[in-house]
């Protein structure tokens, strides 16, 4: 058993499952967006605004936002433990990634509910 | 043909180097790479490599031949030589002791970690612990591993974290005991593996499968360990 206190869930299985579930959410969101933009009528501001005003779309978007945050953290954490060997540099990289992820999530929520 | 061999003697060399040797194969026969090494050693007795059984059973002569890991004794020249050239290097990722001889310490440490022995806390029967033919068949494709390290040293996850990731060979062995009907330590074995490194550093690129000289499939075994962990945890 390898101890790790900086990974997402501290369990390999948990991280692995979160990675898969969030990937499915992100694919669903991406497919929805592509279909909406490619096959809808010409997009107007009102239409785009109305889309994101709906509670269902806000839930879906927030879910995608959280999924992206968790997915990115697990992925970048793995990359950092593979390639950045000095502990200080690795911890710094992980801290920057964590901070950026947190900022993106708060910022995303603000945008989503600021509509 | 031209053979380019990785040479390094820490007592005399500052750094490793590649030695180019031109050699004619007697009778132009399709000999094994190990036989070629013997010809090279006849020319230059200082060359070091490991060998023992010379028939793919002992796992001593794992090395990197034209970029692919394999056992020199069961790899014919026709299978690896390209444009009349062969590049021989030690197994990648492990410390080199001399020339083609690597220090397998890290590899064995991971093997030791998975407790490669049967654990059974029930009273021993008078004669032996029996298995049905079906239970025995579960071990096929697992017990044949000869620990040559060709797979683990072809795995980037093992290169980056040889101290934390068990590696394909160790995990194949781990599943060999998880799958054994006579073993009663399944829960403890799985608990030891459920961290972000031991099993889950495997990203399924299947280098291990492509190089295994015994034709085994560590990636499949790792998938089965993952499924066992999932079943236990969901």
Describe the overall structure.
The complex is a heterodimer of chains A (115) and B (234). Chain A has 115 residues and is an all-alpha fold. Chain A has a single domain (12-113), classed as Up-down Bundle (3 helical TM bundles of succinate and fumarate reductases), CATH 1.20.1300. Chain A is built from 4 helices and no strands. Chain A is elongated, with a radius of gyration of 17 Å. Chain B is an alpha+beta fold and 234 residues long. Chain B has 9 helices and 7 strands. Chain B has helices at residues 33-43, 77-80, 105-113, 133-137, 156-160, 167-178, 186-193, 207-211, 218-233, and strands spanning 2-7, 17-22, 62-65, 68-71, 85-89, 96-98, 101-102. A 5-stranded mixed sheet of chain B has the order 2-1-5-3-4, with helices on one face. Chain B has a two-stranded antiparallel sheet with strand order 6-7. In chain B, strand 6 and strand 7 form a beta hairpin. The longest helix of chain B is centred in the C-terminal third of the chain and has 16 residues, at 218-233. The interface between A and B is medium-sized, with 16 and 20 residues.
Labels describing this entry:
A: 115 residues; mainly alpha; 3 helical TM bundles of succinate and fumarate reductases; B: 234 residues; alpha+beta; Ubiquitin-like (UB roll); Fumarate Reductase Iron-sulfur Protein, Chain B, domain 2; 2 domains; five-stranded mixed β-sheet; 13% strand; elongated
**What would you call the structural class of chain B?**
alpha+beta
Quaternary structure annotation:
heterodimer
Series of H and E elements of chain A = HHHH
User: What would you report as the Rg of chain A, rounded to the nearest angstrom?
Assistant: 17 Å
The CATH topology label of the largest domain in chain B is: Fumarate Reductase Iron-sulfur Protein, Chain B, domain 2
Main pleated-sheet profile of chain A: none
Which parts of chain A are unreliable, with pLDDT below 50 for 5 consecutive residues or more? none
Q: Report the strand count of chain B.
A: 7
């Amino acid at each position: 058993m390898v101890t790790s206190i900086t990974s997402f869930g501290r369990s390999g299985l948990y991280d692995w499952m979160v990675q898969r579930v969030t990937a499915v959410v992100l694919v669903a969101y991406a497919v929805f967006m592509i279909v909406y933009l490619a096959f809808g009528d010409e997009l107007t501001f009102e239409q785009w605004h109305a889309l994101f005003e709906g509670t269902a779309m806000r839930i879906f978007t927030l879910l995608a936002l959280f999924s992206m945050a968790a997915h990115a953290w697990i992925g970048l954490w793995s990359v950092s433990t593979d390639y950045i060997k000095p502990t200080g540099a690795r911890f710094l990289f992980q801290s920057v990634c964590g901070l950026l992820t947190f900022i993106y999530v708060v910022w995303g929520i603000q945008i989503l509910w600021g509509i | 043909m031209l053979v380019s061999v990785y040479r390094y003697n820490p007592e005399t060399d500052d750094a490793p180097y590649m030695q180019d040797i031109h050699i004619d194969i007697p009778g132009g026969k399709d000999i094994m790479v190990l036989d070629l090494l013997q010809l090279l050693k006849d020319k230059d007795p200082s060359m070091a490599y490991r060998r023992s059984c010379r028939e793919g059973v002992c796992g001593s002569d794992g090395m990197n031949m034209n970029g692919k890991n394999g056992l020199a004794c069961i790899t014919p020249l026709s299978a690896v030589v390209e444009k009349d050239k062969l590049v021989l290097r030690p197994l990648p990722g492990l410390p080199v002791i001399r020339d083609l001889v690597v220090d397998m310490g890290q590899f064995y440490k991971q093997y030791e970690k998975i407790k490669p022995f049967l654990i059974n806390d029930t009273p021993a029967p008078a004669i032996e612990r029996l298995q049905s033919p079906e239970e025995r068949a579960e071990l096929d494709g697992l017990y044949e591993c000869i620990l040559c390290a060709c797979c683990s040293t072809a795995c980037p996850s093992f290169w980056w974290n040889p101290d934390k990731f068990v590696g394909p060979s160790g995990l194949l062995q781990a599943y060999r005991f998880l799958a054994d009907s006579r073993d009663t330590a399944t829960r403890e074995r799985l608990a030891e593996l459920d961290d972000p490194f031991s099993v889950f550093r495997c990203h399924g690129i299947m280098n291990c499968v492509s190089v295994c000289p015994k034709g085994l499939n560590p990636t499949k075994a790792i998938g089965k360990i993952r499924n066992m962990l999932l079943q236990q945890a969901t």
